Write the structure tokens for this entry.
Amino acid sequence: MRRPRRNRKSEAIRSLIRENEVKVNDLIYPMFLLEGNNKKIAVDSMPGIFRWSTDLVLKEIEECLMLGINAFDIFPVVEEKHKDKMATKSHDSNFFYIKALAEIKKKFPEACIMTDVAMDPYSSDGHDGIVENGKILNDETLEVLGKMALTQAETGIDIIGPSDMMDGRVGYIRELLDENGFVEVSIMSYTAKYASAFYGPFRDALNSAPKHGDKKTYQMDPANSREALIEAELDDMEAADFLMVKPALAYLDIISLLRRNSDLPIAAYNVSGEYSMIKAAGLNGWLDDQKAQLETLLSIKRAGADIILTYFAKEFALLKMKEGKN
Ligand code: PBG
């Protein structure tokens, strides 16, 4: 009789035939940055996650580097008084976020620092693009995104992450970067970014929820998969270095689809709501959140992601350290 259980009879055999493994250096750790000094403020809807001022984020990054986490995606928490319709602060080289990026790169040149390009944290409308009469203007927004990307590139960061979903932005940003001598700055495109309810806790953390309307005219419809192939093809033509799927868990099929249809590295963003669900259930004693975390990250790998952006990064690295597997 064929007995598949023979291959499961001991951990030694199970580990011989194990097809997928999540490694600490597959992970990118998203972090929230605050203006000011000596500030560490918890994100209530994301237990274990904080917003940090620059001085403290430097310490946190140092700790993470020692745990083997090499890549960080930094998002700014922008105070209401700094927001306006055109997201002006996003390309102001005196703004705390830009200064902090330069400081981080100076202190940790070996760390891979990724930044976010989209207007929403800086926009008084809370949208990723310029709003006029209730509509999001695509091509006018590209100009703002371009300036934002250049200002960030000047700090020495490694990867630009356009998360706005405007058409043509990858090519537009690539060209601007190249013209200005930033040929080495990579672009990780939010290729298939869906209009998802799972971004809720992130918008709490940044206070960046749309003030009116929703993001359905630019983020993708969760009902669609073929559209992801169109986005992937465009990003590839526009010279993206990595393709990203976001969120990850409810979109494992999309990760797998892009994996099979592209030779570019595929990243998946295990977003805030996916983190919070597991943490909340764990805190209630409804499931073992550490095991659920490992299983979740593994499922994203198995679906075909090379890279995972996840708020679990530090906890995962600590677990691996304890197991002595770093
Ligand atoms: C903004 C942006 C969002 C996230 C990353 N960049 C939220 C949104 O589009 O509203 C979400 C990340 C998360 O939920 O963890 N362009």
The pocket of PBG is lined by residues 116, 118, 120, 128, 163-164, 199, 202-203, 271-272 (CB under 6 Å). The radius of gyration is 20 Å. The chain has a mean pLDDT of 97.
